[in-house]
From TrEMBL:
Residues 77-262 form the ABC-2 type transporter transmembrane domain. Residues 1-29 are annotated as: Disordered. The keyword Membrane applies. Residues 16-29 have a biased composition (Basic and acidic residues). It is a multi-pass membrane protein. Keywords: Membrane, Transmembrane, Transmembrane helix. It is found in: Membrane. The chain crosses the membrane at residues 78-98, 110-132, 153-182, 188-211, 218-238, 271-296. This is Transporter. It comes from the Bacteria.
Length: 302
């Protein structure tokens, strides 16, 4: 060969060993570089992820509740207003029918108070049970499950939106009933407490019925049965009911709102009893909304 020594197997082996040592030394030199200084390193990526997780805002109950309430209010504004007129006219028609049977006194007070709260029961109990039943049957709960909002915000927001539609109909029914039966209008301001407390109790019950019902048709049936119970046990005077029916009446959440409103028609209302009835109604509302929240979580994970 020109200009070099002949290539033998021994020389080739020596060169291969030298190349291997040189590659090992280069790998050692590279391995001493800390991984966290590399822009694409694993530690850098972990630190970036941790920083982003710390900076990500958490969903709070009150802002989520307001957002769900506004969304439900704007969505149900067009669809539920005709039903609100139906609920109001239904309660006014019942009072006109009862006018031929009841002359006045405590029975008239019970009829007017029960008819006013019946508007709340029609919307907050019946319609809300139908809404959550259809939402569960159509898979609409999957949409709310993907939102970064607490389950309580979904239930409270929908319940508050439906209960808000009852305010005009309840006031109109109460005023018409007072004029029809000759009752005083002095203490109608107590509706400011009766409507939200009775609405919370009935809305929680309606939402629980809709979420626990296995089928939308059954949820609609349960909502209508609940409204019928509020009609029969709330509008009819309690003095004419059997003892067993009175016991069932005490178990109905809207009864305490009816009792609180009916007590204000007297010449000298006993405000201690009024506040007691409102307190019971509020406690029942908290329990029913808690049950509805549990039912929502149970239905959302299935």
């Amino acid at each position: 060969m020109k200009g070099g020594a002949p290539s033998t197997p021994a020389v080739t082996a020596v060169r291969t060993e030298q190349d291997a040592r040189r590659s090992e030394e280069e790998q050692r030199d590279v391995s001493v570089v800390p991984a966290d200084v590399l822009p694409g390193g694993v530690l850098a990526a972990e630190e970036t992820t941790a920083d982003e997780a710390e900076l990500a805002p958490r969903a709070r109950l009150w802002p989520s509740l307001v957002a769900v309430y506004r969304a439900q209010l704007s969505r149900a504004r067009v669809a539920r207003i005709p039903l609100l007129f139906v609920a109001t006219f239904q309660s006014i028609g019942i009072m006109i029918l009862m006018r031929g049977v009841v002359d006045g006194g405590g029975e008239a007070q019970a009829v007017v108070a029960g008819s006013a709260v019946l508007v709340v029961a029609f919307v907050a109990l019946n319609l809300l049970a139908q809404y959550f039943g259809q939402l569960r049957g159509s898979g609409g709960l999957d949409h709310y499950a993907t939102l970064p909002v607490p389950p309580a915000a979904v239930v409270l927001g929908a319940a508050g939106a439906y209960a808000s539609f009852t305010v005009p109909g309840t006031v109109v029914t109460a005023v018409f009933g007072c004029l029809l039966f000759g009752l005083p209008l002095t203490h109608l301001w107590v509706l400011v407490a009766v409507i939200p407390l009775a609405g919370a109790a009935l809305a929680g019950l309606g939402a629980a019925l809709g979420l626990l019902a296995p089928r939308p048709e059954l949820a609609t049936l349960l909502g209508q049965l609940g409204m019928s119970a509020a009609l029969l046990l709330g509008v009819l005077p309690a003095d004419r009911m059997p003892e067993v029916v009175r016991l069932a009446r005490d178990l109905l959440p809207s009864t305490y709102g009816v009792e609180a409103f009916a007590r204000t028609f007297g010449e000298r209302p006993d405000w201690a009893f009024v506040l007691g009835d409102l307190a019971v109604c509020g406690a029942v509302g908290v329990v029913s909304l808690a049950v509805a929240t549990w039912a929502y979580r149970r239905a959302a994970v299935r």
